[in-house]
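Service request form, structural biology core

Requester: graduate student, group of Dr. S.
Request type: structure prediction, single chain
Budget code: on file
Notes: please return the result as structure tokens.

Sequence provided:
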Amino acid sequence: MSDGPPRRTQADVKRTSWPGWIWSVPIAALAVAGWLGIRALVQGGEKVTVTFDNAYGMKADDTSVTMRGLKIGSVSELTLAPDGRHIKAILKIDRAEQQYLRSGTRFYLHGAKPDIGDPSSLKGLISGPQIVMEPGPGKPAREFAGTDRAPALAPEHRPTVRYVVYLSGPAGELEPGAPVELLGFPVGTVIKTTLNYDPRTGSLTTPAEIALDPSQLGFVNGTPRSSSDAKTLVDTMLERLVAEGLRAQLTQDPPLVGSRKVKLDFVQDAPRATLMTENGATVIPAASSAGVDGIISKTDQIMAKINGLPIHETGEDVRKTVSQLRRLASSPKIRDTISHIDGAAAQADKTLQQVSPQIRALAAQLRETASEVESTARAANRTLGQGGGSQNDLPDTLRELTNTARSIRALADHLDEHPEELVQGRPGNAK
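Core staff response, request fulfilled:
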């Protein structure tokens, strides 16, 4: 048996198009990233830039953007503006609401400045403010200027009428955007307040520029759309109301702790006034500050009058009078006089007690005498009736006897009721 040459075997290797399982991981990652990108592109938000004066507690990825109470986006970034005086808030708005991003749309912060008069704004103390978007007309836009409170002005597509009011009181506390109310109804907003000094007269004035919304003034026949027609209509209305006593006042609601606002209301016994034009602006006459400011002002006036009274001199006069009365009361003569008066009064009481029984006995005797006189008169009458009398003047004597008896009886009754008059005399007879 011979050994043959060894046989060799060879594997049949086939190449495949799949690069290998190791590449499945990056491919899956790319697929997920692509899907997220497409989702972000389809469902992602529109970036909007809103400029505010201050951050007011806003936080990136935390502060929400709402419209009609529904969340439609959030703040994605907060940066300082190039001028260093403003804050730029980058908002991400849902694409479904991008149709409302127009030039007339307004953004404002709700809860940036909590106010007791607006309880809903107090939530900003805990959760921070939120940005509210108020849609408006115009062309598509992505940059806006926001405010720190809800605008009271009419939307930009409606006309407003501007006036100037010279307010008394702390007008510097009246912030732009503060409401203007007519009989308690919001009808406009404050544009700005300024401080003016006139070197010729040396006087300070605090004019406030306000804007009224004609659509909020209650015109029955509607409001005109043009600015000129609206101003004519509102001017005519205010001229009549001012003639009836309508005045502008700076007030605070709630008192002491609330924010300042301008109130248009009727003032009782207001001096006659009319609308005036000054430097091209129409001026609404104003009255003194209302509410607590007015009370404080009146209190200050009363205190000024009290301070002007001669209280010190009056006090000195009172002290002198009291001192003289004290010296007079401590005088020996006064004490002796009072002692004599007390003694005389005591003696009079003692005498009265002693004579009272005698006076009553005297009254009884007087009654007996009166009875005897009356008996004598009756007996004489009987005698005359029998024809025994011949004197012509006897009837007159009898009448006098009868009157005397009545007088004696009346005297007896009076002494019985007032025995002290024999000692003290009759009231009114003392000289």
